[in-house]
Write a structure and sequence with these properties.
With 299 residues, this protein is mainly alpha-helical. The chain has 2 domains: 212 residues, Hypothetical protein af1432 (Orthogonal Bundle), CATH 1.10.3210.10; 79 residues, no CATH class. Helices cover 67% and strands 0% of the residues. Helix 8 crosses helix 14.
Length: 299
């Protein structure tokens, strides 16, 4: 597949779209500050409090069952100290991402889409911890948003995308291959266009663009490998409709496994198959976590 031609075709899909969801500028500023090594809790809290909707969102989510606080938290600064900067960054971006597409009609089951997305985030976090990746919350967040291109295609190309999904239902064809046949591009390139519009960091964009082609990495090979393997695991183990279909491991998964093995601080199982099987031990706990996240972020 010609990546350049696929990007050109993806950009064409955006040409006539006038109502594309946006990430508020205040959110981008907060996320940038949360990424900074020099920001203080007071500075971040003041910036969050300058937007009442954002402040209320932080308070609502930190008091949800997802975080199991022993006492109600009513202060943004206390929420920051309780969760940590990286967790707040992840929570804010995730909630705005969910809201951006909450009310858009899709030719597929959005609940199943979110369950898959949140599951990939949870598995990415597990893998990141296993190999001692230096930003576990980043792996979690990028795992959640890796498929954002699908919600664009499903909404703005609804009829054609719906026909495509119906055509591969109960077949061995993958959504990725079917997208290429139908549109000359895939949710990866479309997702990259969205990520660039929303000013996502380069490493996030790289994962969104290449989670099905991990050998084409430009930013953080380890992060991309974590999410690529988490995505494959969830596709292989979950019960999803045709919007998320698994296939046998290919070049992308083999490359991701090689990178993971190279960078891991502790020894990993001897093969990709054994590594994926080892994740089964936590699958039930992950399902419970995903249900809590789904209920918190989609209400």
């Amino acid at each position: 597949m010609d990546k350049v031609a696929m990007m050109i075709n993806a950009r064409k899909l955006f040409k006539d779209v006038s109502d594309l969801p946006t990430i508020p500028a205040i959110v981008s500023r907060v996320v940038s500050m949360l990424d900074s090594q020099d920001a203080s809790p007071d500075e971040v809290a003041d910036l969050i409090l300058s937007d009442q909707v954002l402040a209320a969102r932080v308070i609502r989510v930190v008091n949800s069952p997802l975080y199991r606080t022993s006492n109600t938290i009513l202060s943004v600064k206390r929420a920051l100290l309780f969760l940590g900067f990286k967790s707040v960054r992840e929570m804010i971006l995730t909630s705005y991402f969910v809201d951006s597409f909450k009310n858009q009609e899709q030719p597929f089951d959005m609940k199943m889409f979110w369950v898959h997305s949140f599951s990939v985030g949870a598995i990415s976090r597990r893998i990141a911890r296993m190999i001692e990746y230096n930003d576990v919350e980043k792996a979690y967040l990028v795992g959640i948003i890796h498929d954002i291109g699908k919600v664009f295609l499903g909404h703005y190309c609804k009829e054609e995308y719906g026909r495509m999904l119906a055509g591969i239902s109960n077949t061995s064809s993958t959504t990725y291959d079917a997208e290429y046949e139908s549109f000359g591009t895939t949710h990866c390139e479309v997702g990259l266009c969205l990520a660039l519009r929303w000013n996502f960091p380069p490493a996030y964009c790289d994962v969104i663009a290449n989670h099905h082609s991990s050998e084409v990495v430009t930013e953080d090979p380890l992060l991309l490998s974590i999410v690529a393997l988490a995505d494959f695991y969830c596709l292989s183990h979950g019960t999803y409709n045709s919007v998320a279909q698994a296939s046998i491991p290919g070049a992308s998964e083999d490359n991701a496994w090689e990178v993971l093995s190279q960078f891991a601080t502790d020894s990993l199982p001897t093969s990709l198959e054994h590594f994926l099987s080892a994740l089964d031990e936590e699958y039930e706990a992950i399902n419970q976590e995903v249900n809590q996240l789904f209920n918190t972020m989609t209400i």
